[in-house]
Design brief:
alpha/beta; nine-stranded antiparallel β-sheet; 15 helices; 23 strands; 31% helix; 21% strand; globular
Length: 585
């Protein structure tokens, strides 16, 4: 079973007291001016010498981390709609497995709105409705799926396939038709039941296992008895089947229980939900293979009044039942029409407020309990085409990871890895989108230990009643131990430049005169912020073939050189051979 990392070092609290853990932290000193972000000097003001040429001085506390996160901090989510639109049958694709493996180690949460409409049927091949589609290909298509399944069954170990292009093209046509059905359900908030068969579960687990992901399976909490208690019949059958197959996975019950009344007209209050989770824990303990399995929940919605009340009641009655507390956050809705809207600092800062609300409730009842963002996406309702699947959305994604890490959120589950809507990391042609490449670089360079950042720069005097929000956001971690190109003790800094002009950053203090490896990610092509392709240090990123990633080659900056961040870009910077004490252990 996966184990959560433990927070460390009493020194962390001392740093937390002296730092503002929001975006850019300031430490006033004789050599640093006190500010939170750079702004132009007031009219008529002169830029004094060195500071006039350098927008910001940057240092990092290398003595001790302020947080230690789960090794699976950046994790993934897969929506149950893949069963309905047929993409589940293609999770064995060699390319898709390769892309998922690139983001391991990670959790894979199988859940979403349709979690509460899943019904398990212990049959290998159940005749099922595959959605609308041209009659002329449907029979051959179904036969191809069966033949593919037979071929996979003959493989030992990890089962992967190279599906013919014509088969994938027919699947894309069928999925496009089914998207209309899924969209209608979403807009009406009325969802039909989905049957997950034993064969479907086998394919799902095979995908997770081949990719090195730990599966978290969401269970239907709206399968209720007449007295509104949770009906466990389907769940018990699923548990027995999974245990018989020795599927090592974790569990979750329901999705956004605070919204049940609007979907089914049947509310489940916090007391009843706590009883349901207690019942599920007892069920897991009754199945020998899962008696120590992890259980996560309650996966509450965005922490507004109703969700907070439900979470508070749940923690009061069942806080000890779950291994981590999960909740969801989405930033924008379908009314957003401009790429620039994803760059608004006010929008980015909403996450900090929401995290504070959730952690306050959790710490009131279960101090120290791990908090997970159990569902995170740039936009509600599956996202926005040509916006939430472009470079523009990556600013929200990277800032989310930075803020969540600094505030101690142990795991962030990104919705969705593949398929449904426009917030996914991989499109239906199995091509990585910008957020995938950012996630890949993050995974390879950023470790679980979070470091405190010290920044100083110039800032104009704030006007009365006006909040100056940071447009230069800097986060620091120990470099990932899984990256063998860097020795222990290296530090990774990632910088988000929301300014429309180039900004310069001078490494100071312990970072002074160190060799730096730059990984600068920019949009590729003429579309700018709406680009669906990314370049790393000027080279376009794309898969070489179904099994080969491009080389993530850094640009070496000589010791002492100032970092120049182009406008509206995101960069990762590895400080080599710094031998940071916090990162050696």
């Amino acid at each position: 079973m996966p184990k959560s990392s433990q927070c460390v070092s009493p020194r962390s609290s001392q740093w937390m007291a002296s730092l503002t853990i929001l975006l850019l932290q300031i430490v006033p000193s004789s050599s640093y001016s006190s500010s939170s972000a750079y702004q132009r000097p007031a009219a008529g003001g002169k830029r004094p010498g060195f500071l006039g040429r350098t927008l910001i001085l940057l240092d990092v506390n290398t003595r001790s981390p302020i947080r230690v996160l789960n090794d699976n901090f950046l994790s993934l989510q897969l929506d149950p709609s893949v069963i309905k639109d047929g993409w589940l049958d293609f999770l064995s694709s060699k390319r898709l497995v390769t892309l998922a493996r690139g983001l391991s180690p990670a959790f894979l949460r199988f859940g979403g709105k349709r979690t509460d409409f899943l019904q398990f049927n212990n049959q290998k091949n159940l005749a099922k409705f595959r959605g609308p589609g041209p009659d002329y290909y449907l029979k051959n298509y179904e036969d191809d799926i069966v033949r593919s399944d037979i071929a996979l069954d003959k493989q030992k170990g990890c089962k992967v396939a190279n599906h013919p292009d014509i088969m994938l093209e027919l699947q894309r046509e069928k999925a496009a038709s089914m998207q209309l059905v899924l969209l209608k359900e979403q807009l009406s908030n009325i969802y039909s039941n989905i049957t997950i068969t034993a064969r479907s579960l086998d394919k799902l687990y095979n995908f997770a296992d081949c990719a090195g992901l730990h599966l978290i399976l969401g269970l239907n909490a709206l399968h209720r008895n007449p007295d509104n208690s949770w009906n466990t019949t389907s769940t018990l059958s699923l548990l027995k089947y999974s245990a018989g197959k020795k599927y090592n996975m974790s569990w979750e019950l329901g999705n956004e229980p605070n919204a049940y009344r609007s979907m089914k007209g049947r509310a489940v209050n916090s007391t009843q939900l706590a009883q349901d989770y207690t019942k599920l824990r007892n069920l897991l303990q009754s199945v020998r293979y899962y008696h120590r399995a992890h259980l996560f929940g309650p996966n509450a919605g965005r922490p507004r009044k109703n969700a907070i009340l439900l979470l508070d009641g749940f923690m009061k009655n069942a806080g000890s039942v779950v291994d981590a507390v999960t909740w969801q956050h989405y930033f924008v809705d379908g009314r957003v029409k401009k790429a620039e809207d994803f760059l608004k600092t006010r929008l980015m800062d909403t996450l900090t407020v929401q995290i504070n609300k959730v952690t306050q409730v959790v710490n009131t009842h279960s101090p120290g309990k791990k908090v997970w963002l159990g569902g995170l996406g740039p936009a509600w309702s599956g996202g926005i085409n040509n916006l939430s699947n472009t470079y523009a959305a990556s600013f929200l994604w990277m800032n989310t990871l930075g803020v969540a890490a600094v505030q101690g959120v142990d795991v962030v589950l990104r919705h969705s890895f593949f398929d449904y809507g426009y917030s996914h990391l991989v499109d239906q042609h199995f091509n990585p989108l910008p957020d995938y490449w950012f996630s890949l670089v993050f995974k390879q360079l950023v470790g679980p230990k979070v470091l405190a950042v010290r920044v100083a720069g110039l800032q104009r005097k704030p006007q009365p009643g006006r909040v100056i929000r940071d447009k230069l956001r800097i986060y620091a971690h120990c470099t990932s131990y899984h990256n063998h190109n860097y020795v222990r003790g290296s530090i990774t800094i990632y910088i988000i430049n929301l300014h429309r002009s180039r900004k310069k950053i001078k490494l100071a203090g312990t970072l002074r005169n160190k060799t730096v490896h730059q990984y600068l990610l920019q949009p590729y092509g003429p579309d700018g912020l709406r680009a669906r392709h990314v370049q790393l240090n000027g080279v376009k990123l794309h898969m070489q073939d179904n099994e080969t990633f491009p080389e993530l080659k850094p640009k070496t900056l000589r010791a002492g050189r100032t970092i120049a961040m182009p406008p509206l870009t995101i960069g990762f910077y590895v400080i080599k051979n710094i031998n940071a004490y916090a990162c050696r252990r």
